[in-house]
Write a structure and sequence with these properties.
single chain; alpha/beta; Rossmann fold; Hypothetical Protein, Haloacid Dehalogenase-like Hydrolase, Chain: A, domain 2; six-stranded mixed sheet; about 25% strand
């Protein structure tokens, strides 16, 4: 069911930004209908942008090819289709170690995203893969991919970060209870150099201070010489909220979290019914 709260002017749009999981991807797969809808926007001269919490190494090439620009790790990195860097905002090694200490103190298990790799602790792998209440099917599949070789696995994550001095673009964590996640998020916010967002499935995603999908879109606006009013954004989760609030027009999925549906201008069908394609056809009269 489509719910419209604000009128839409397609002639004003220069950027269309899309989340992946739960928005354009249904259990990791993009339908032909959604692919065709994105191609139609590109044909109209609109910059089609993926804005995701995934690292670029976790995005299938057939999906990546649908987007002209890539905002990955929740704004930690922004690149074009040729891989040219538009902006990067990693967490420095010292701050990353401090964040890991806080998360460990809060009873969380973490996975690090850096330089095209995913670095997971064995505790993270064990709990995400074997404890089904810790994460959704898509999260467990992503972590299984890490175990099979997409990324690296570390027994001593803190020591490795310190020894190699790597820059971290995002820290993904999971907790046993929502209370643990919320309490840890408050401790990370109090740190002053981190931006944690608690998401569904008892998860949390942490980037460097002020870094988010919205921040990535602002960087892209500078490059394309436009403003947030020229953006239409699509999302379903709490980590999409800043992006949706920034955009001149926002679309929430029918399967979106309640906090998203209450904030957007337009609620389309769920990802299982190609809600993105449905909204594009209606909004752009395709």
């Amino acid at each position: 069911m489509i719910v419209v709260a604000k009128q839409f002017n397609p002639d004003n749009i220069r950027i269309a930004a899309f989340d992946l999981d739960g928005t354009t991807l249904n259990e990791g797969v993009m339908s032909a209908e959604v692919q065709n809808a994105l191609a139609a926007l590109t044909a109209r001269g609109i910059a089609v942008v993926v804005s995701t919490g995934r690292d670029i190494c976790q995005i299938p090439l057939r999906v990546l090819g649908c987007f002209e620009y890539r905002i990955t790790t929740n704004g930690g990195s922004v690149t074009d289709s040729e891989g040219n860097i538009i902006s990067e905002h990693p967490i420095d090694p010292k701050t990353a170690r401090e964040a890991l200490h806080i998360i460990h103190k809060g009873k969380g298990y973490s996975c690090l995203y850096y330089n095209g790799f995913v670095l997971a602790s064995l505790g993270f792998l064990y709990r995400i893969i074997t404890k089904t209440n810790y994460a959704s099917k898509s999260h467990r599949k992503s972590t299984k991919d890490v175990r099979k070789g997409t990324g690296k696995v570390s027994f001593r994550m803190h020591r490795l970060v310190k020894k190699q001095g790597i820059n971290i673009y995002k820290i993904q964590s999971f907790f046993k209870t929502r209370e643990d996640a919320d309490r840890t998020a408050e401790m990370l916010k109090a740190h002053g150099r981190l931006n944690p967002v608690v998401v569904e499935d008892l998860g949390m995603e942490t980037t460097f201070q002020n870094v988010s999908k919205a921040h990535g879109l602002l960087e892209l606006c500078k490059k394309l010489n436009c403003t947030p009013e020229n953006i239409v954004a699509f999302g379903d989760s709490a980590n999409d909220l800043e992006m949706l609030k920034l955009a001149g027009y926002s679309v929430g999925m029918g399967n979106a979290e309640t906090c998203v549906k209450s904030q957007v201008d337009y609620v389309t069908g769920p990802v299982t019914e190609d809600g993105v394609a449905e909204a594009i056809k209606v909004l752009f009269s395709l």
